[in-house]
Design brief:
The chain is an alpha+beta fold. It contains four helices and three strands; from the N terminus they run αβααββα. Helix 1 packs across helix 3 and helix 2 packs across helix 3.
Length: 101
């Protein structure tokens, strides 16, 4: 199912606010991981695919590189979304509240 323009703009805005670019490609976080962060932790009530994430990240100006069937970007491991993701590991519920930008 394709995202509506409104849903895509939510994803795009979230990516712009919660990721920080760096010069090199970060192979620690792929589009699948970003998809999971958006789905599980940000949870705006709609499904996004890896393709949606790749499109949004490219539209935000990030470089994308495909390796071993995954797509990686030039995003900092210190990006807010990555930090929130790492702090959530081992916490199976969505009860925990995070400070999204």
């Amino acid at each position: 199912m394709q995202l509506t323009n409104e849903e895509y703009n939510v994803l795009l805005s979230w990516a712009e606010r919660n990721f920080t670019p760096i010069k090199s490609i970060n192979e620690e976080v792929c589009a699948y991981t970003i998809h999971g962060i958006f789905e599980r932790l940000y949870d705006k009530g709609f499904y996004v695919t890896e393709h949606d994430v790749i499109r949004a990240m490219k539209d935000c100006g990030y470089q994308a590189v495909q390796r071993d069937g995954q797509t990686y970007f030039n995003i900092s491991s210190r990006s807010r979304a990555i930090q929130i993701f790492r702090s959530s590991l081992g916490v199976p519920s969505k009860d925990r509240k995070f400070e999204w930008m």
